[in-house]
Amino acid sequence: MDILHSLALGFSVSLQPANLFYCFLGVLLGTLVGVLPGLGSAATIALLLPITYHMPATSAIIMLAGIWYGSMYGGSTTSILLRLPGESASVMTCIDGFEMAKRGRAGAALGIAAFGSFIAGTIGLVGLVFLAPPLSEFALAFGPPEYFALTFVGLTLVSFLGSGTWAKALTMAAVGLLLGIVGLDPVRSHERFTFGVLSLQGGIDLVPMVMGLFGVSQVFNMLERRPPGIDEIAKAPTRLRELLPNRDDWRLASGAILRGTLVGFFVGILPGAGATISSYVAYALEKRRSRAPERFGQGAIEGVAAPESANNAATSSGFIPLLTLGLPANIVMALMLGAFMLHGVTPGPTLMMQKPDMFWGIITSMFVGNLMLLLLNLPLIGLFTPVARLPYRYLVPIIVVACVIGAYGVNNNPADLFVMVAFGLFGYLAEKYGYSLAPLVLAFVLGPLMETSLRQSLILSQGDFSIFVVRPISGALLAGGVIFVGLPLLRRLFRRAPAAELARKAGP
Amino acid sequence: MGSLRGNGPAEARLTRHARLGETLFGASLLGVGLFAIFKASALPFGSLSEPDSGLFPVAIAVVLVLFSALSLGNRERPPVATTAERAGIVRVLVLIVALCAYAWFLPRAGFLICTVVLLAVVLRGLGRFGWTGTAVSAVAGAAGCYVLFTRLGLPLPAGVFGF
């Protein structure tokens, strides 16, 4: 009953004409961005952050969220038709999706991707609706040690689950934490790493930083290399009927959709894992439990249904840590946190009680947005496909102008443009040499909370580090983190030993 | 030797360049870490039971030094072979200079002039658009953005041609 009341309140917010409009704008932009290979949802959200400053807070988040889950829908279209994943979460969809398209079954692949995404996104939201309130209440009991444990385990997991080697990922996390330290000490107001520069006293601003890391660096990347040629293009289905999967398709795919949803939902909650990893796991699971695994890679419809469902369920559940604990689980959520902060709202356990209209408005808008996406995607797929082939030379000027306006617009400070260029160069070099940016941004956002909770915990315990282990919740979190990171490492160590042995024997 | 691995001499050179770049990048992160330890050690450290401003920065800087050193040492796989040609690097440098100039001139010359010039550099210099196309798109783009964003409530510096 309580939940029904809350949902009614939420829909009364999300169905307001202005919010419907922003939701539509978000999912439309998200679809376009998902289709475009050069521009990810993180970059787009970063670019739009400054504009949302002048919108009501709830509408802003509704629109930005729409970009995030909308991009998951858009990403599948080009993966299937062009074998071009517009988003990293759609890479797995290319494998069987493009094979299906080559065999003239593009319509069924696109249809099952859209329906699977819709079903998974909606089920994921139902999970969010039921899980968020108890989690928020649970989180109210968290003290500094629990928050330190959460941020610590979160950053460690991000580094181990992300792309690239873990040493590089942890290096980037440390860089992010250091960048978060710049400015006045939150407790005693000592200047730290400001080098006497006045504008650094307030710390480095998130917006120019992410504009540089994701916008400008992407442009550098595009300018440096020639765009990859698109050799084969499957024909986009033009009639709606071609997009409806037949009974056999549904029989094969329905189990995959449900399993993908479950995988996506739980993996999406984990820090750093998110949509991309959940799509890998879902695909691997489907292939392993299939009675005919050789069909995978040859156009198996489960190979499209599972990862597409998983990435959408993960986008829904990714909101859980942010809305209930105030902790972002991935880059996009870190930017969402930035968007909340721009409007003076701190997401966390108290959000649901203090701003129920906003909390439930955002969640219910995602039900609306998912429905919009289903209706938008099916008939308009043919229209979106050419966007993927938009040459970089049209894209570069748009991104450049969006970046300069965005970075300048947050504070009306031209110095932010230099910050943006510096981070653009840094991000470009980092990606080039295999240092991923996700841990850096998350660490930057989480750093201040991590430091204050560490210092408060140590004061509480009079310098005794055992406080993090003996308190049940923080102890359990740390133990979970150790197991999660330790097990694969151990397994790798033990597996490598015999392999090295063999290699030595086989050698000359 | 090279052909055994399927690498032509050009490719081998690219890999060598990428390796060098990776080493330099990792080494500079290590340098940042060392510098941060030096700077942070000047901050009041407090004690474990009364931590002050210096504790966290020192700890993080040590972590950075540790892991950047590990990343430098740990190079099982060659970095992603980049097909960076000289022309591509020149294009990147041109944009860096253009953006810095933009930041410098924005408060002095205003949004319209700066953005027209920036767009002209990007469209003509980097995108190889024709002169007419460049001129029309640059002026229209800059003016359009100016109108749109000032209407949205974002005050852009008007400069000489503000309206």
Description:
The complex is a heterodimer of chains A (508) and B (163). Chain A has 508 residues and is mainly α. Chain A has helices at residues 2-14, 17-35, 41-52, 57-82, 91-102, 106-139, 144-161, 166-181, 206-224, 247-269, 274-289, 302-317, 319-325, 331-342, 351-354, 356-388, 392-411, 415-432, 438-461, 467-470, 472-506; strands spanning 183-184, 191-192. Chain A has a two-stranded antiparallel ribbon. The longest helix of chain A has 35 residues, at 472-506. In chain B, 69% of the residues lie in helices and 0% in strands. Residues 1-6 of chain B have low confidence and may be disordered. At the A-B interface, helix 8, helix 9, helix 17, helix 18 and helix 19 of A face helix 1, helix 2, helix 3, helix 4 and helix 5 of B.
Key phrases:
heterodimer; A: 508 residues; 2 strands; B: 163 residues; mainly alpha
Principal-axis shape of chain B equals flat
Strand percentage of chain B lies at under 5%
Indicate the percent of residues in helices of chain B: 55-70%
Structural class of chain A: mainly alpha
Low-confidence stretches of chain A: 227-232
Strands side by side in the biggest sheet of chain A? 1-2
Main sheet characteristics of chain A: 2 strands, antiparallel
What is the average of the pLDDT values of chain B? 83
Topology of this protein?
The complex is a heterodimer of chains A (508) and B (163).
Chain A: H1 2-14, H2 17-35, H3 41-52, H4 57-82, H5 91-102, H6 106-139, H7 144-161, H8 166-181, E1 183-184, E2 191-192, H9 206-224, H10 247-269, H11 274-289, H12 302-317, H13 319-325, H14 331-342, H15 351-354, H16 356-388, H17 392-411, H18 415-432, H19 438-461, H20 467-470, H21 472-506
Antiparallel strand pairs in A: 1-2
Chain B: H1 9-40, H2 55-73, H3 86-109, H4 111-126, H5 131-151
Helix pairs in contact in B: 1-2, 3-4, 4-5
